[in-house]
Amino acid sequence: MWAAPSLAYVAARPNRGPHRWGVGGPGGARYNPTVAPLAEDRKRALRAEMEALLGKGAVLSDPDELLVYESDGLTLFRALADFVAFPTSAEHVSALVKLANREGMPFVARGAGTGLSGGCLPAEGGLVISLMRMNRVLEVDYDNQVAIVEPGLVNLHLSWAVGPRGFYYAPDPSSQQACTIGGNIANNSGGPHTLKYGVTTNHVLGLEVVMPDGELLWLGGKTRDQQGYDLVGLFVGSEGTFGIATKIAVRILRKPQAVKTVLAVFDEVDQASEAVSAIIGSGLIPAAMEMIDHLTIQAVEDAFGCGYPRDAAAALLIELDGLAAGIDGQAERVLAACRACGAREVRAARDEAERALLWKGRKSAFGAYGRISPAYMVMDGVIPRTKLPYVLRRVNEIADAHGLRVGNVFHAGDGNLHPNILYDPRKPGEEERVVAAGAEILKVCAEVGGSISGEHGIGLEKMDYMPFIFSEADLACMQRVKDAFNPAGNCNPGKIFPTKKTCGEVGPAYRPHPIEEKGLAQRF
Ligand SMILES: Cc1cc2nc3c(=O)[nH]c(=O)nc-3n(C[C@H](O)[C@H](O)[C@H](O)COP(=O)(O)OP(=O)(O)OC[C@H]3O[C@@H](n4cnc5c(N)ncnc54)[C@H](O)[C@@H]3O)c2cc1C
User: Fold this and answer.
1) pLDDT on residue 463
2) Which of 24, 168, 171, 429 has the fewest CB neighbours in a 10 Å radius?
3) DSSP for residue 422
4) How far is the CA of 279 from the centre of ligand 1 (A)?
């Protein structure tokens, strides 16, 4: 476990008010690894050492500046690091990691901070290594369809870079205008087009990695089917706990010859859910099949006016792509399946401008909730597609029972739900109800044979729900894999694994959380 650090790993820092860790967060401040406060002169000396390495302006340690890095997209959880450093090379990252090891300081990689599970949160104290200045496309081999990029490259920027030659990078999280490929690797991110093209792991060939002890090595290469253990496969999805990726070799694809985007509008959510299964059951695999419910349509139309009918109970955005020959016939089959399930309106986007507007509505939906609610928590459950009608009904029942509103916008074709629970953090008790409702929703997903995360990762948010889907033996096996990469446990500590009553990583005493008391989560 945790090697005796020179900065004692103790709960010496005060929990700065209820919102710092979210009173409703699973375990609140108790889960957070906390580093003993640094004396001011030691802090100055370490900052100077890092600046000598990285250059002036490449290290933050002023609490006001650090605030920007105290949370990711899940603002229920917050923690202030001692330092945020901005390396520009793998050698910088390696030197920072070695310095952190020398000081017994936990560290965490951070991309754009768009994560939705608290994955890039630092320990309370410790070092955030921001990869945002390592954002170049280093090499593109068009003949072999491989690009080598730095981890801080924004996802969409890769498609922009290779677009003029007729290529693109397929994994397209809805956050792709901001999130980084390094963050995508860590979370094995998906996106609307995952249905046909797979998630990030299907597009990564090799990785240069700074291991948690500072050693620099390559996993995989520029071609598929490397010999030996599939360490690239292991690293992708490890949520920043196996080391820090500093170069990434990814596949790029040729843009499809033709694209057809269809909007189907329904008066009942069940009809839309049934249409999803009907389309796939007919033998078609659309590139994307996204569902947007009534509340979300209101928010999107208020914000952007994208052309979704405001009175619809649900809409499906369905995209087909591939060879031009035959695509009209496939679109006809999609339209027919939607009509057969009761769609009141079905239409194909007339041109690229209309298609872009419909996608803008879908991809900006999370942001649009900001117009109708001060805060929201995005859930990320997975279910078998055929269970959509039942689970969506249960989601609404659970939200109602907790007196909360929920909007749904999600990757319906994959059965990857995103119930967005809207709340007001200023209202006493509301955060606890949000967390309890979220736990109940994920329990339902697990009970119907699904999973507790499709793409956002476990992070800090869902670690206590791991026993919903994994046995003790499963988790012990995962822990051994983690220990092989990260034996000291100082690389992104306090994530993924349920906190054990006697956990060596976390100091503060155990008290049961309300969701445990309700039997929704358990520790072991
Ligand atoms: C509006 C919105 C829409 C979203 N839509 C989607 C979606 O459709 N699909 C989806 O999958 N996700 C989605 N997300 C979630 C999020 O964007 C993804 O998880 C994304 O991959 C995070 O990237 P990031 O650069 O912001 O990473 P961060 O949030 O900074 O970090 C995420 C994790 O990656 C680790 N990490 C970052 N860089 C590295 C590195 N170089 N090496 C090792 N570990 C690293 C961090 O330690 C952390 O554990 C959405 C988020 C928002 C806010």
Assistant:
1) 92
2) 429
3) E
4) 30
Atom 50 of ligand 1 has which residue's CA nearest to it?
A: 175
3-state secondary structure of 148: strand
Q: Would the CB of 184 count as within 6 Å of ligand 1?
A: yes
List pLDDT tens digits, range 89-116.
Answer: 999 999 999 999 999 999 999 999 999 9
Residues of the chain falling short of pLDDT 50: 1-31, 501-511, 523-524
Q: Measured in angstroms, how far is the CA atom of residue 308 from the centroid of ligand 1?
A: 28
Q: Are 312 and 275 in contact (CB under 8 A)?
A: no
The answer to whether residues 458 and 117 touch, using CB atoms and an 8 Å cutoff, is yes
Beta bridge mates, 34: 124
What is residue 16's predicted lDDT score, i.e. its pLDDT?
A: 40
For the record, the structure tokens of 208 come out as 């240069």
286 lines ligand 1 (CB under 6 A): no
**DSSP H or E run through 421:** strand 419-423
From 89, 155, 174, 179, give the residue whose CB has the most ligand 1 atoms within 8 Å, as the site to mutate: 179
Q: CA–CA separation, 481 vs 496, rounded Å?
A: 13
State if residue 188 touches ligand 1 by the CB under 6 angstroms criterion. no
Q: CA–CA separation, 100 vs 9, rounded Å? A: 13
Phi, psi of 57 (to 5 degrees): 80, 5
- What is the pTM for the complete model shown? 0.89
Q: How far apart are CA 41 and CA 34, in angstroms?
A: 20
CA–centroid distance, residue 254 to ligand 1 (Å):
25
Residues 392, 313 contacting (CB under 8 angstroms): no
